[in-house]
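sry for the spam today, last one i promise. struct tokens for design, 372 residues
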């Protein structure tokens, strides 16, 4: 069978009738696209339509299939066979359509129930808006499918004013129902762009030490503009300055500001016995704060903790010692109860307080936000 030849024949028959594809589509209650596909040979009419098309054009069904006119018309027996085949095809389609209608109605009811279970009797801050949004979109899709299989969609589509009204109502409904989701999506998108554009700055030249410490860089003096204010955290646990007698074994300062400034730093110094004793005495005289529990931190056992300034919101500044002349000064300063910085990539794990976890997976973060 040559489909393209059949298509050309159908096009010739339409031209003989002096009809447009749109006019013919209305006669057979199909789309203009279907007519176009028939006439290009990319597809052919369902068998249930062949007899109707043949009668409309006054040709034999075999002529349509073979794509050319024959000398005699279809006899009564062939017509009856074709009609029965068409009736059989229509009956099978009807059975399938009924099944689809039942399944579609059940799908809509299940999705409505799902939305109800996600929202009824649940505080708004506990609702998973992402899951709710996806469920709503699924409901919209299933509703459209239901309208299609019941034949209502075709009637709606023909009424262009009604279609425009439905589109407008849907857009307004989505905006009203999910304005928070829309706003949050925009905000998250902006923040993600900011994160992508924000560099992580690393400094390991200890000769610039004073520039990084907010108690010595003039950060709080009028007219001084510096990024190293560090949310006002007291850093005086760290040395006032680096002297020639201090043997600095390691040093790093990290600054990251995707939307809120975050700081990470450590200084490892090996002291002479006399200087070590004096520094330990100074640090033990510091008025330390409570630190366990904040950001899942446990009692320090890896090293001896000499001094600590802990803040429930902004993090830690502290000093550790191995008891043999080495003192480790460290800090993690941030806000909003978590660090965007992948801090373990920039600081040896042993320099963190035991148990430190400043991610959104920490028990501390979840307790603060009521996620437990």
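last one done:
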């Amino acid at each position: 069978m040559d489909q393209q030849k059949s298509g050309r024949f159908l096009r010739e028959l339409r031209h003989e009738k002096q009809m447009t594809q749109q006019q013919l589509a209305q006669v057979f209650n199909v789309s203009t696209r279907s007519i176009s596909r028939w006439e290009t040979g990319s597809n052919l009419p369902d068998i249930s339509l062949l007899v109707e098309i043949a009668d409309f054009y006054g040709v034999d069904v075999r002529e349509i299939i073979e794509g050319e006119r024959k000398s005699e018309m279809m006899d009564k027996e062939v017509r009856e066979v074709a009609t029965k085949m068409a009736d059989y095809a229509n009956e099978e389609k009807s059975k399938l359509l009924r099944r689809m209608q039942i399944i579609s109605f059940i799908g809509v009811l299940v999705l409505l129930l799902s939305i109800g279970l996600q929202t009824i009797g649940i505080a708004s801050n506990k609702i998973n808006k992402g899951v709710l949004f996806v469920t709503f979109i699924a409901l919209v899709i299933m509703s459209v499918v239901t309208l299609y299989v019941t034949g209502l969609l075709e009637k709606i589509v023909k009424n262009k004013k009604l279609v425009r009204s439905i589109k407008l109502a849907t857009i307004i409904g989505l905006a009203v129902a999910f304005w928070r989701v829309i706003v949050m999506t925009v905000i998250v998108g902006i923040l993600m762009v900011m994160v992508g554009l924000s560099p992580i700055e690393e400094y390991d030249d200890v000769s610039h030490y004073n520039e990084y410490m907010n108690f010595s860089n003039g950060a709080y003096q009028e007219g001084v503009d510096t990024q190293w204010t560090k949310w006002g955290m007291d850093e005086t646990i760290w040395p006032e300055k680096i002297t020639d007698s201090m043997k600095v074994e390691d040093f790093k300062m990290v600054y990251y500001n995707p939307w809120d400034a975050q700081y990470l730093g450590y200084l490892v110094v090996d002291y002479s016995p006399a200087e070590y004793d004096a520094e330990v005495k100074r640090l033990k005289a510091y008025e330390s704060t409570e630190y366990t529990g904040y950001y899942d931190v446990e009692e320090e056992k890896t090293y001896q903790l000499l001094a600590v300034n802990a803040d429930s919101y902004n993090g830690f500044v502290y000093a550790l010692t191995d008891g043999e002349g080495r003192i480790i000064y460290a800090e993690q300063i941030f806000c909003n109860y978590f660090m965007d910085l992948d801090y373990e990539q920039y600081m040896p794990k042993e320099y963190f307080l035991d148990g430190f976890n400043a991610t959104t997976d920490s028990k501390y973060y979840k307790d603060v936000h009521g996620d437990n």
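The chain has a mean pLDDT of 82. ok im logging off now
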